[in-house]
Write the structure tokens for this entry.
Amino acid sequence: MTGLLLAPLVNGVINRVKARFAGRSGPPVVQPYYDLIKFLRKGAVYSGTTTWIFKASPPVSMAAALISLALVPFGGTASLIAFTGDCIVLAYMLGLMRFFTIAAALDTGSSFEGMGASREALFSALAEPAFLIGIAALAGETGFFSLSLMLGKVPTVSFELLMVVVAFVIVYLCENARIPFDDPATHLELTMVHEVMALDHGGPDFGFIQYAASIKQWILGALIVDILMPYNGGRWYVGIIEGVAAMLMLAIIIGIIESTMARLRLLRVPQLLVAAGALSTIALLLIMR
């Protein structure tokens, strides 16, 4: 429930921090909520080129995001759905979101959206191994293969886990189309990756895509927060408050990163993602030695 309500707020905080660094007052932190309401009140228009894949992509992405959110614990509270191997299901749900987004972009027949889909496929092919190997390192460190048990049993953050956190931060920036991988504020089709794939979506469909992306951002951020700030008992609402505060701090850090860094050249992106995979692999080897 916390993620459902506060996921768009993370984007609002990031945008506000970036505006402050640029010397502007910026939009209110609740602007993403206003945008979602605006999208839901509009109608959708479909091109005659598209098929059912284009129409199915937003609701499928939204459903996959909700299932993924139910699999991830937060603030010391267990996830709504927990079982052995749920971390693999999480990776598959995030992959399902990406697959339908790419398929919908290709379904439009637009060369710009096809270019963005191609880049998204390249980035994900390099980011997923870093994510999965990092999950394996967490499982090896805690002895559990369920996210609720795994993240609830994280010991004192060790050097190996710090390597996993760095890898997850890189994956976080890549999967959420943040700088240095993508610029969510750009309006040039030749440079966009995620946003260009949603150019033909409008109304409630675009609102579903934006909300699903916010939930995905919350999920990946929650994994980082749960590793760095394991909650060790006490009242449940204290853990939720601490988790929300940590998520807002992560949003501020992301805003600072985007305000002080430039976007990487496309040829440099695979090198950074391979470095994330190497960090996860080294951490796993050190844990399993």
Remarks:
- The mean pLDDT is 90.
- The two ends are 39 Å apart (CA to CA).
